[in-house]
């Protein structure tokens, strides 16, 4: 049985992790850590757990954590895990980082896009990028895992079947993505408050989003080509969900049905990726670990339209982190994640 710890347990990602781990059949103990609220009952922040969970938030004490934990999740803002993770190297505690700190292998990229000091190169080399469906063999051996960003999860699962093919045309890729507001975390900002989000739809960080280098890095690993992408994120007035709509040029003479078959074959052993017969909507995956994808080709233009939807807090963060824990600890990949989306 596993003792799991969560740093950042009062944030959106940490709360979702607690919900998933509490119901995981192989996790028998969960310790919750807080940098600002240690000593207080978790239920005083989370009335949702009242009556059933009586645990308190604990202070972050690395020595104590190393003695007790099997796996530690860091659901913390950028800039925190790069400082915390080195204490756990060679400790036997597996670390799964939900932030962007350990994803980019090039320190200059991290500093440019995150505007923070990068982690050490040795730590970045140790961290395995955890896009579960495409990197299982390395994830199995990982001690430190960099959980992918929410948008990169949707985009990369939507492009993985194409990007390692010799006819991949990465230069032509355009990504139009939309996210619910919980993607921004729990701290309110001018842009996330009700009056600015309700009945509103906005584009943001055009050509400047921190997930651009993460997507480009993985596409380069697959294709061998360094190709800049066009990525336009939008904020939509919903709580959870991401839809990434992607356009890429392909060979005009290949029939549309062949592309669907390529996706079905690629994901045949991946229970959480569902290649759908029609375009999916965000509520088809709401509060679940599924990523639903559909692809079609316009034979007039020779362009594919690929749509990929996830729940940003589950498959885009905590669900994928639990999926990665399962792979790292040798459990069935689906353990603790076998539930349907909420509907309506
Ligand atoms: N929201 C989403 O959809 C996704 C988020 N992510 C990433 O996951 C991480 C967590 O995101 P999210 O939960 O939304 O963020 P939140 O802002 O909701 O929560 C972050 C938590 O981190 C804790 N924290 C803040 N500063 C520190 C610190 N210096 N040391 C330790 N803990 C600290 C806080 O808890 P306390 O004060 O109790 O310590 C806070 O509750 C971020 O890096 C985010 O970018 C990744 C994919 C999707
Ligand atoms: C809707 C919204 O604001 N989403 C956030 C996602 C942040 C995130 O997950 O950041 P890292 O993956 O870099 O940790 C954003 O676009 O910045």
UniProtKB/TrEMBL annotation:
Compartmental location: Cytoplasm
GO BP terms in the entry: L-arginine biosynthetic process
Keyword check for Amino-acid biosynthesis: yes
Single GO MF descriptor: N-acetyl-gamma-glutamyl-phosphate reductase activity
Source domain of life: Bacteria
EC number from the UniProt entry: 1.2.1.38
Record's GO cellular component terms: cytoplasm
Keyword Oxidoreductase recorded: yes
Chief subcellular location: cytoplasm
SUPFAM superfamilies xrefs: Glyceraldehyde-3-phosphate dehydrogenase-like, C-terminal domain (SSF55347), NAD(P)-binding Rossmann-fold domains (SSF51735)
Domain Semialdehyde dehydrogenase NAD-binding: 3-142
Active site (catalytic residues): 150
Coiled-coil ranges (or none): none
Keywords, ordered alphabetically: Amino-acid biosynthesis, Arginine biosynthesis, Cytoplasm, NADP, Oxidoreductase
Biological pathway: Amino-acid biosynthesis; L-arginine biosynthesis; N(2)-acetyl-L-ornithine from L-glutamate: step 3/4
SMART domains listed in its UniProt record: Semialdhyde_dh (SM00859)
PANTHER family, sorted: N-ACETYL-GAMMA-GLUTAMYL-PHOSPHATE REDUCTASE, CHLOROPLASTIC-RELATED, N-ACETYL-GAMMA-GLUTAMYL-PHOSPHATE REDUCTASE, CHLOROPLASTIC-RELATED-RELATED
Free-text function comment from the UniProt entry: Catalyzes the NADPH-dependent reduction of N-acetyl-5-glutamyl phosphate to yield N-acetyl-L-glutamate 5-semialdehyde.
Protein name, entry field: N-acetyl-gamma-glutamyl-phosphate reductase
